[in-house]
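Record pair follows.
FIRST:
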Amino acid sequence: MASRLLAPESMRIALLLLAAALAACAPVQSPDAGSPPATGVRLDAERTSPTAVRLRLQNGSSERIGYNLCVSALQRRDGGNWTAVRTDDVCTMELRILEPGGAATFDKTLPGGLAPGEYRYTTNVEMPLGRSQTSVSSNAFRM
């Protein structure tokens, strides 16, 4: 039986999806100062209830970006550092596309038993789409 080769465009899409899935599994590394202003991409966190936060990703850049807000990581301020907080979230490893000027929202449930303090979310975005990743941090909120 003859094997069937993927067309170059199909191969490119398959590789892009595989790279995005692998990257989404990687831990989020983020700078301490928040979102890099040069990217034009902004992540906002809004408490919608005592147990929930709505994340809003805004693409203020001129490029399409890839994202998956489900895999955003919760962090807690510990002195001058931000440390990861385990959430046990279950997410599908899909890459979504956000057009320039677009916005996307995602509701996150906060884990029970969080200590009082300052928290934020971080997420990776693929920017420009298919080339490199950058980490974006939300505004801080208190528990």
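SECOND:
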Amino acid sequence: MHEPLGFLLQALGVHALAQRHFPEAARYYTRLGEHHAQTRGEGQHLAAAYHQLGRIAQEQRDFPTAEAWYRKSLAITEEQGDEHGAAISYHQLGIIAQEQRNFPTAEAWYRKSLAIVEKEGDEDGAAATYLQLGSIAQEQSDFPTAEAWYRKSLAIKEKPGNEPVNGRGHR
């Protein structure tokens, strides 16, 4: 009985977030987190709920709250040895730092994410991180470095079989 509730809360949270109904999405993800904490569900599910709460706060440009949620998610993924989950949180923490124009911190988070996605062979993840690193360099007027990062991202995106599926560049 507990798992269908988790799936339902997740689906409702995804729907509310897609509709940009942030308070409603936050309620569903908060309930989802409470559900997984009470049922002693897998930590990855709790980490995912926290990550989604971070996304909601980030969309609302509430960066301190977003960072706090991402760090809670990160603590769980690191504790469980979930490197892929940690890489996603590192990347989001990089975006938050970049949004606040804290470029050294953003770069440090992106490089932590990049080390994992490159090790795992996650080319799409690497391309996204190369793009962000290029953006940081560009924002600091380091155009040669920006171009180098952008070219690395482009090389991955232009590989055969990496064509967009839905017309918006997303697979």
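COMMENT: Helices lie at 2-18, 22-38, 43-59, 63-80, 83-99, 103-120, 123-139, 143-157.
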